[in-house]
Task: inverse folding
């Protein structure tokens, strides 16, 4: 028969083990440099979130004061059917991979392509960074290591940090 003291020791050992696992999980999450606030990051919108108003395609952004916008002349009745890729141009790779999104490229129902850009209501350009998001890779379509590409299809895959 076990004594009451050995049960307490087992309980303490399990508590210490669980505390170590929780501390490791917290440290691992901070390692990836992901933004803590969802308002500081943006990502290419899903096709179903993009509205077409007479060829002007728009989607709301997470941050107030900015929106995703693109224009295709003569595409008043076309729908966005598929996300293809996002293109990010590095302007300063030494500082946290800074640059800007050149466009989020989508296929339209009429066979044409749409490129959405992040537009600010006040017209100013935002400094962006790809941080440590793993979906961004050097593009094979261009002859420059300063052009990154994201082809992943899941929500928030092609994220950038707005600074």
Result:
């Amino acid at each position: 028969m076990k004594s009451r003291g050995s049960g307490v020791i087992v309980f303490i050992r399990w508590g210490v083990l669980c505390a170590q696992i929780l501390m490791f999980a917290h440290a691992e999450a901070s390692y990836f440099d992901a933004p803590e606030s969802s308002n500081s990051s943006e990502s290419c919108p899903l096709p179903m979130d993009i509205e077409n108003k007479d060829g002007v395609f728009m989607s709301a952004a997470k941050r107030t004061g900015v929106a995703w916008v693109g224009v295709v002349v003569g595409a008043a009745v076309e729908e966005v059917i598929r996300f293809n890729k996002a293109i990010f141009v590095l302007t300063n790779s030494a500082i946290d991979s800074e640059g800007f999104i050149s466009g989020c490229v989508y296929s339209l129902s009429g066979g044409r392509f749409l490129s959405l850009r992040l537009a600010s209501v006040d017209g100013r350009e935002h400094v962006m960074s790809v941080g440590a998001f793993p979906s961004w890779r050097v593009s094979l379509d261009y002859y420059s290591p300063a052009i990154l590409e994201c082809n992943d299809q899941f929500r928030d895959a092609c994220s950038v940090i707005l600074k």
